[in-house]
Design a protein that fits this description.
There is one protein chain. The chain is an all-alpha fold. It has helices at 3-21, 32-69, 72-101, 121-128, 138-143, 148-153, 157-171, 177-201, 204-219, 228-252, 258-275, 278-292, 297-310, 313-329, 336-352, 359-370, 382-410; strands at residues 26-27, 30-31, 105-106, 109-110. Helix content is 74%, strand content 2%. α2 runs antiparallel to α8 (177-201) and α15 (336-352) packs antiparallel against α16. Residues 118-133 have low confidence and may be disordered.
Length: 421
């Protein structure tokens, strides 16, 4: 049985068994919930273990080739243009649907009275205390770490990517045996990391089962009821971006068959859904894009690690819908100028706060502050945030992969999605 079918079956079983066991059921004094937590954390740790060596080796080997051909500037320009364009499209889709559906209005009245207030407001305020639009500027500071080893240890991906880009570029400028030794070394590291990724993915069905069962067991579906309109609005917006906007870009710009790309990306999409982390899914995304979709390491090693850090289509869409929903629930009618502010801040924060813990919550509070709403309003959406986090992460990962395919096509690569995966 192919891996993606194994993962899909594990996903369905996780929903059924998670609902059946809940948080209290157990055997021999051990809760099933604790077993889910242990296995899920183990799988997530295994994926995170691969991130640093895989990113460094893939970028260095890929950029060494790009730098030698003098195409790095062109590749970077296309990548940034794609990321900004798709994020803007995602935000506009979210803005359109939240205005049409108006999930914050129930029977003509603001929905604030029927929404549950979270008891965890204090911890939210602690996490976002002192944050503001100026945090977007920190993206440039995080790009240049003072200590590359510390940056790797702390998971500061932007700094790691920047250093790897420089290393790969200047490695391509070294002539003689030294340059050859370095290229062979990093190519060897990359090959080994891809083999380890394949091995870790053998355990993906177990990891996915545990991660999803834990979420279902702890939250169930009862939390969806009072927030069903908001949940469905985000779901429809994500689906529109995932099933309409991105496939259209694949057809019109990339000139490839979207159905083949969906099939190529199934393992990465299911993994991203269960982990709710673009960075943790990066090893799987790289494998799917290079081996299933046929994009070269030269392109994928540049586009995908950068995308996992700064390209957050699903997150930007969610921030926009959440801010508008909260405004509606408070009974505020936002004019076009204020809605434009929401669009602009959502676009900037989807990039600028990507490396900050609780990034989506931080970004939403920045938007709320920009339009004059209280920070504690974030508590209105916490009940469904985890499930929506899983969904929007899958959209983030798929957008990254579409970028790699489109840019690979624009760079004149052959063999991308030419045969069914």
């Amino acid at each position: 049985m192919k891996l993606h079918w194994q993962i899909l079956i594990a996903l369905l079983l996780a929903v059924i068994i998670g609902l059946a066991t809940g948080m209290d059921a157990g055997v021999l004094g051990i809760r099933f919930f604790d077993i889910y937590s242990f296995l899920g954390t183990l799988f997530l740790n295994a994926l995170k273990m691969l991130i640093v060596p895989l990113i460094v080796s893939s970028i260095i080997t890929g950029i060494a080739g790009v730098g030698a051909s003098g195409a790095m500037g062109r590749l970077g320009g296309k990548t940034l243009l794609y990321y900004m364009t798709t994020s803007l499209f995602a935000i506009l889709v979210g803005m359109l649907l939240v205005n049409i559906i108006a999930p914050g209005i129930v029977d003509g009245e603001p929905a604030r009275a029927i929404l549950p207030q979270s008891e965890d407001i204090g911890s939210i305020e602690e996490r976002v205390a002192g944050r503001g639009v100026e945090d977007v500027v920190e993206i440039f500071l995080r790009m240049v770490p003072t200590n590359i080893v510390a940056a790797a240890a702390q998971g500061q991906m932007l700094g790691l990517i920047f250093f790897s880009l420089l290393f790969g570029y200047f490695m391509s400028r070294i002539t003689g045996p030294g340059g050859k030794v370095l290229q062979d070394f990093w190519q060897g590291v990359f090959d080994v990391m891809m083999r380890i990724t394949e091995w870790v993915m053998l355990f993906a069905p177990v990891g996915v089962f545990a991660l999803v069962a834990k979420v279902v067991a702890s939250t169930g579906f009862a939390a969806l009821e009072p927030l069903l309109a908001f949940f469905l609005t985000v779901l429809l917006a994500l689906a529109a971006h995932f099933l309409i906007v991105l496939p259209l870009l694949l057809v019109l710009v990339g000139r490839v068959n979207p159905a083949r790309h969906y099939r190529a990306m199934v393992p990465a999409l299911l993994t991203s859904f269960s982990t709710a982390s673009s960075s943790a899914t990066l090893p799987v995304t790289l494998e799917c894009v290079t081996r299933n979709a046929g994009v070269s390491n030269r392109t994928s090693s540049f586009v995908l690690p950068l995308g996992a850090t700064v390209n957050m289509d699903g997150t930007a869409l969610y921030e926009c819908v959440a801010a508008m929903f909260i405004a509606q629930a408070y009974g505020l009618e936002l004019n076009l100028a204020t809605q434009f502010t929401v669009v602009l801040v959502a676009l900037l924060t989807s990039i600028g706060v990507a490396g900050i813990p609780a990034a989506s919550l931080v970004a939403i509070t920045i938007i709320l502050t920009a339009i004059g709403l209280p920070v504690e309003a974030v508590g209105l959406i916490l009940a469904v945030d985890r499930i929506l986090d899983m969904l929007r992460t899958s959209v983030n990962v798929f957008s990254d992969s579409c970028g790699a395919v489109i840019i690979g096509q624009l760079e004149g690569e052959t063999g991308i999605l030419k045969a069914d995966s």
